[in-house]
Design a protein that fits this description.
381 residues; alpha+beta; 5-stranded antiparallel β-sheet; 41% helix; globular; disordered N terminus; disordered C terminus
Length: 381
């Protein structure tokens, strides 16, 4: 193991951190900017001059990551056999959080591009958002069929995927809540391959968990054209990620629909305590994809179905992810870049994804108009 001298530590130099073939590794350290009761050397207890850089800005959803301080290179080197497990765990946690951020931003791109709700007006109360269908547009579209179908179906305009009405929702939290309304199943279906691809390089296990929601902060209520209404479903679906040390985290891409505006990554024990009334089932990652594709296949090869449309979008996403990595760099490398490089590469990736999904959505809408299909799904899900 290579450790720089004390003079390097005290001048805010950064050590590289890499895994050598013999299993040894180098630590990154940085100066302690502010002295505190906690900035004592983890080995000898003297005042520290450096802290392991792996913990800088690393989210700690489980409360198990504790920054490690040193007074000298000698103490740092002595402590490495004990510290390396926590150090590597902190690095994996930073990568995991970057993967979470990237997945969430991609998911929001997908939500806006696959929007399919014609909205007339929105009324906001203290605990609920009431969303009314655009009745006149629906009636015009349906014509004489309106009286026949309006009680049991909610028709759309000619394009199935529509531009999201940003102007109607200036509040960002309202946008996120509406975009994620009843779409937790879609999130699992469209992003399972993405999440697994982002987490390459981390030893983890990922599963899909169905829960019954407890104490939502906000309710979204859909008011149909015939005056009937439906509130958000109580069932919710998330990813559970288990790390090698058996720590479990919940990745929740659609929690905003319940007014949960947090970063989407939470310790499993905290999530269960605060968000879940009961766990309904746990399945292998990809189970939602299999269900959707099986439903699409059950209607026959020439029957246009909503799962089939999303399957087309999913295929375009996976192809775009592979193409971007071939032309740029792997997600494994991107998530381990410097902060500045990571933000730049992430922005490039999101722009590329938005372009690819937009093309696929336009292709789907053109196909639907060509076959004369008139979608009449009741809700997003």
């Amino acid at each position: 193991m290579e450790v720089k001298g004390k003079s390097d530590l005290s001048s805010s130099s950064e050590m590289s951190h890499s895994h050598a073939s013999d299993g040894a590794a180098k630590q990154e350290v940085m100066d302690v900017k502010e002295k505190s009761d906690h900035s004592k050397c983890s080995v000898c207890g003297k005042d520290a001059i450096s802290v392991c850089k792996a913990f800088k800005g690393t989210p700690d959803e489980t409360g198990n990551l504790t920054a490690v301080y040193y007074c000298s290179a000698a103490c740092q080197k002595e402590d490495w056999p004990n510290h390396k497990i926590k150090c590597n765990a902190a690095r994996d946690r930073r990568v995991l959080d970057r993967a979470r951020e990237t997945a969430q931003k991609m998911w929001m791109v997908l939500c806006k591009k696959t929007w399919s709700w014609v909205i007339d007006q929105v009324k906001i109360t203290e605990r609920a958002v009431l969303i009314f269908d655009d009745l006149e547009s629906v009636k015009t579209y349906m014509g004489p069929r309106w009286e026949v179908f309006h009680k049991r179906r909610r028709p759309r305009l000619k394009d199935y995927f529509l531009p999201f009405p940003v102007d109607q929702f200036p509040d960002l939290h309202q946008q996120e809540a509406l975009l994620n309304h009843s779409r937790c199943g879609h999130a699992l279906f469209l992003t399972d391959d993405l999440v697994k691809e982002l987490l390459k390089g981390i030893d983890f296990k990922i599963t899909e968990v169905d829960i019954r929601v407890k104490d939502p902060v906000m309710m979204l209520v859909h008011v149909r054209p015939d005056g009937t209404w439906a509130s958000m479903p109580s069932q919710h679906q998330v990813f559970k990620i288990t790390l090698p040390n058996q720590e479990s985290l919940v990745l929740d891409l659609t929690g905003a629909q319940f007014g949960w505006h947090y970063n989407g990554l939470m310790a499993r024990t905290t999530f269960i305590k605060e968000r879940s009334e009961t766990i309904m089932r746990i399945r292998d990652c990809g189970a939602m994809t299999k269900e959707n594709l099986a439903e699409a296949d059950s209607h026959g090869p020439h029957k246009v179905t909503y799962p089939g449309l999303l399957g087309s979008i999913k295929d375009s996403i996976n192809q775009a992810l592979s193409k971007w990595q071939r032309k740029n760099l792997s997600f494994k490398d991107m998530l381990r870049c410097s902060d500045e490089d990571f933000q730049s590469k992430q922005a490039q990736l999101l722009s590329f994804m938005e372009e690819c999904v937009s093309k696929e959505v336009a292709k789907v809408n053109k196909m639907l108009i060509g076959v004369g299909w008139r979608p009449s799904m009741g809700t997003h899900a």
